[in-house]
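Hey, I'm writing a tutorial for new members on how sequence and structure tokens pair up, and I'd like a real worked example in the thread rather than a made-up one. If someone can provide the structure for the chain below, I'll link this post from the tutorial.
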Amino acid sequence: MPQARDQDQIQLSEEEATELAQELSVQHSSGELNQADSEQILKMVAGLGDKRGLLRLKFAESLGQVGKTAVPALCRALRKHENVTVRRAAAKTLTLIADPIALDDLLYALLNDPDPVVQGSAVGAMVVIGAEAVDGLLNVLSNPKNTQMQLGMASWGLSFVGAQAPERLREAAQSPNAEVRTAAISALADQIQSLNDDGARNLLIAALKDTAAEVRAEASTMLGKLDDLEWAEPLLQPLLTDQDPQVRKNSALSLMKLEASSSIPLLKKLAESESNDSVKAVLCLATTQLTSLE
């Protein structure tokens, strides 16, 4: 029998793992896999740490087929297992099950696990769960003590699930926290493009005048992604003289992406007077690219 250091830290030898994989294949064929008991589930979780990638995949897929019954063991492994390979696989397996009950543990992994792969996989599982993950992701963004990597992952996650909670996203776009506003504006692009949401458009327009430069910069980038030249060009042109260099660069790049040829004279004029070398280079690049399209 496999030995355990504690209730959940079962360890399998290579032979035991191989035998278990064979047993799972038989159960899968007979349709009995969803009836796995707690001991077998713990063995499968232990198998997530096997050195053989194909066996790890087998155990993950089997746990995914077991479904919600396996979630508590996977969440404990995600929080506490000493083997980082098991924690990584546990997070990825929770993606297959997509049970909202796992959200607290996934959020814990994002904020506390030292391994960036575990953090990223936890966010990926939150994304699959959907709208119920939005508040947790927003809470991550609103905490200035979180790392830039954690903030970036939370922002990425929000960009995928935000459209499933449009009201919550619109509230976030008006948050007192600049990180939250930035992430919300990025996520609003899907609502504007897919749903033609006028309320989301108005929030994006308001973001162009936000007091925080990072919000204005994100909003100017979003305008370039919406493929609406007639609407975006007059909004972007004033941002070419914004006090923040990044806003000026993003605005020029968005005009270039939108093929805004009528902005060429303005881009040329501003390039001549621009004092920031990096901004000047982007203005010149946009001018050259747009000119080549004429």
